[in-house]
Amino acid sequence: MKARFGKVAVLFGGSSAEREVSLMSGRAVLAALQGAGVDAHAFDPAERDLHILKEEGFERVFIALHGRGGEDGTVQGALELMGIPYTGSGVMASALSMDKWRTKMVWLACGLPTPRYAILEADTDWDAVAADLGLPIFVKPVHEGSSMGATKVVAADQLKAAWELAARYDSLVIAEEFITGEELTAPFLEDQALPLVRIVAPDGNYDYQHKYFTDDTRYDCPCGLPAELEAELRTLVMKSARVLGCRGWGRGDLILTADGRPYLLEMNTSPGMTSHSLVPMSARVAGLDFETLCLKILEGARLG
After folding, report:
1. Which end of the chain is more exposed for a tag (fewer CB within 10 A), N or C?
2. Known binder of ligand: residue 80?
3. Which SUPFAM superfamilies has this protein been placed in (predicted)?
């Protein structure tokens, strides 16, 4: 196994707002790879300069970074320059998928369903946004993940405060039409969508705490949908990934309304790999244990 992959760096930690989650993901991946006999080593870009990867002879990188600086094309570009193959999507797809606004523009241009939205600024007419999108409204930073800085707004007079919170994380803030329905996520590995996971959070509030640090959220996998419908949704998610240029692995989030209409929410190009994470959960149902999943992701590492 060591000879197959060479010296591998698992990048985790970093300096984004999602550092804490990345540390959990990276430690789990590192343990799995080492347990499989891979010559894998921890590497935290917040503590060591990336150029050390080249100096120390690393031949492949598993990216377990989340958020800006790790999931947005920045690290991917540096690794391209150094000629070190890495897991997940390339520079363009990583940057595009991290940008919720431009992701939606691409999806809409390709005729894919996604909730209506508005970009918020300090001088936004809050009442007009509420009238246009309807209430409730979901407000979130354009370039953050893990529900960082996100707020569900139920009254127009709450919009400014929600914008102010999101603006602490990002200069770009988006307001999104709130779609009521079943929350689903579809991981994918290479060109195959894995089984859907249904997410049932307390009071429908799937926030940062409920994602990573409590056991109050229920995850159903298999998701319980009719096989034909699940197949259609998996196909939709794969199409949404392809038009963004995603590769390797990732996870698409969506909502399914009571009358059967799907709405794409976000694309994650470096999803969590923690004990609460959805990609490993789905992979298990597909017959892949955590160690095998990590090895398959690492196997897909590439340049360009």
Report:
1. C
2. no
3. Glutathione synthetase ATP-binding domain-like, PreATP-grasp domain
Domain boundary (177, 206, 221) is at 177
Number of domains composing the chain: 3
Residues β-bridged to residue 187: 251
Residue corresponding to tokens 């002879």: 57
pTM of this prediction?
A: 0.92
Find the catalytic residue in 89, 240, 270, 277. Answer: 277
Q: Which amino acid would we find at residue 205?
A: N
CA dist 136 to 133, 157, 170, 263, Å? 8, 12, 22, 16
Residue 76: pLDDT over 80 = yes
pLDDT digits (tens, 9 = 90+) for 141-155: 999 876 789 999 999
Which amino acid, 300? G
129-160 core/surface letters (b: 16 or more CB in 10 A; e: else): bbeebeebbbbbbbbbbbbbbbbbbeebebbe
Same-domain status, 121 and 104: no
- CATH number of the domain bearing residue 254: 3.30.470.20
The active-site residue out of 25, 146, 270, 282 is 146
> Are 89 and 247 in contact, with CB atoms under 8 Å apart?
yes
